[in-house]
Amino acid sequence: MAAVLAEAQLLGLTGGGALSRAGRALAACLRPHTGGPEASAPAADADVADSRQETVLTALERALAADLPEPVDILLVQSDLTAIVPGRPTPELGAALERSSEVESRGGALTVRFTPQSVRRALDGGWSAAELTQALSRFSPSPLPSTLTVLIDDAARRHGAVRVREVASVLRVADPAVAAGIVADTALKGLGLDQVAPGVILSTAPAGVVLRELRATGLAPVLENEQGRLLISERPGSGRCAPAPTPARPGNEHEVRRRRPGRRELATLVGRLRAGEETRRAAGADPMAATDQCTRWRCCVRHRPRERGYGCAWPDPTGPCRNAPCGCSPSNPAGCAWPTLAGRRN
C-alpha cells in the first residue's frame, strides 16, 4: 500500500495525504455507474472501452493543467555558467536544457549548469556548436555570456578529434595498384572494404572470410598476427594456425589448447605403456588380448556368429565366453556368436 500511495503522489494524484484535483477526476471516472442494468454490465465492446479511456485521459489532462503553473520560455543565463528558468519550462526549452546542461536544483525555479561534459553530450547527440548556441539564444532575453560561448566553441573544437571505427580485419597491401584493384572489385563488395591509408584497407568481414574471397579472385593472401608476423600452418593445407581460445565454460579450470607433447612427456607415456605390458606378461595374460569393452565388441562383430540371439560375455580378459554356443575368447574370437544391433547375424 505504501508503494501505491508513493506512486500516486509522484503522479500528482495526491498531495499532503489528500486527493488532488486530478485524483478526484480519476476517481470520478473510475467510479462504477449505477444508472441501470445496461450501465452495470461490463463493457465488452472495444469502441466503448476506447471511448471511456479517452474520457479519463481528457479529464486528467484538464485537471493537471489547472493545477500546474503556466510554462515559461525564458532562460536567464549567468556568467558563472549557470542558468535559471523562472517557472516550469516549455517542452522545447526543457528538451534543450536536458541535452546540454546538468540540473542543480528544482522547485519554484529550475537551476541548471553548463559543463564541458554536458556540452559534449549535446554535440554527441548531433548538434553543432552553432545550433546549440542558436537554441539557447532563442530563449535568452539577453546575449549569451562569453564564458558560455567560449565553452561551447572549445568543446566543439576538440569534439571528434579522435574517431573510433569497429572493424573485423585489416589488409596490408604493398602494391598501390593491387590495393586499388581490391577496393574497386565488385566481387569483394560484401567485405565492406575501405582504404584509410596508402596500402591499408579495413574490412568489416572476419579474416577467414576475407582470405576465402581474395583467393577466389585469384590473389594469394597470407595471414599475420597482431604484431605483423606471418602465421605459418604446421600442416600444409590445414588453414589458419592460430591457438584455440581458452574455454569460457563455467567450472572449467583447465585449458584445452592442442599442442604437441614434448620429448619428456612422450618418454613418460612410453614408460607407462611398457610397464603395463610387463605387468600383464608377469601375470601370464595374453599380451594380444582385448582389455576394454569397445575392443571386445569390435572383435565380436567382426566375425560371423553361429547362433542367432547369443552374445559374447567374457567374464574376464583371459577367460572364455559364458555363452556355450559362442566359445570365443579375447585371444580367439573366431567363434563369436554376437548378433548385430538390429538383431541380425553379421
Give me some keywords for this one.
346 residues; alpha+beta; 4-stranded antiparallel β-sheet; 3-stranded antiparallel β-sheet; 12 helices; 11 strands; 39% helix; extended; disordered C terminus
Explain this structure.
With 346 residues, the protein is α+β, with helices and mostly antiparallel strands. 39% of the residues lie in helices and 10% in strands. It has helices at residues 2-10, 21-30, 37-40, 46-67, 91-100, 116-124, 129-139, 146-158, 176-184, 207-216, 263-282, 293-301, and strands spanning 14-15, 18-19, 71-72, 76-77, 82-85, 88-89, 102-105, 110-113, 169-172, 194-197, 200-203. The strands form four sheets. Strands 4-5-8-7 form a four-stranded antiparallel β-sheet. A three-stranded antiparallel β-sheet has the order 9-11-10, with no helix packed on it. The longest helix has 22 residues, at 46-67. It is extended and about 100 Å long.
